Amino acid sequence: MTPFNALDLVQRLAADEGRCVLYTPVLEELRQRGMDSDDLLGIVQTELGETHCTASKTTEKYYPGTTSDYYSIWVDDCSEWMFLKLLVAPAPGGGERLVITSFKKDNTR
């Protein structure tokens, strides 16, 4: 499935940590798995593909007027399929930023 947020834009934003926001539960999940934000942003930059996108839906909270993309991707560092939800939103001061709102075990697999 083609994600709503262009993958090349998502990957470009992921390459600039200053343009990324990771929600607290995402950071907690990363810590529990011995990972950090650089690990997840690296996965987004180099491994995430359109084939991993399972859905795109209007964002329900916090970022009105945006669309969230839902991904399911095998993560070697976790040794399992992980669910990843992200969106692209306007950044304060102009431009855009990548917002990762969820990263957790994919229980649908």
Task: Label this structure with key terms.
109 residues, alpha+beta, five-stranded mixed β-sheet
Could you walk me through the main structural features you see in this protein, from its secondary elements to its overall organization?
By secondary structure, the chain is of the alpha+beta class. Helices cover 25% and strands 36% of the residues. The chain has helices at 7-14, 24-32, 37-46; strands at 20-22, 53-58, 67-75, 80-90, 96-105. The protein has a five-stranded mixed sheet with strand order 1-5-4-3-2. Strand 3 (67-75) and strand 4 form a beta hairpin. Helix 1 packs antiparallel against helix 3 (37-46). The protein is globular and about 35 Å long. It starts with 6 loop residues before the first helix and ends with a strand. The model has no long low-confidence stretch (mean pLDDT 97).
Task: Work out the strand percent.
Answer: 35-45%
| First-to-last CA distance | 17 Å
CA radius of gyration = 13 Å
Give a count of the beta strands, DSSP E runs of length 2 or more.
5
What is the SS-derived class?
alpha+beta
Can you give the helix content as a percent range? 10-25%
Order of helices and strands: HEHHEEEE
Spans of at least 5 consecutive residues with low confidence:
none
What is the general shape? globular
Query: Major sheet: order of its strands?
Result: 1-5-4-3-2
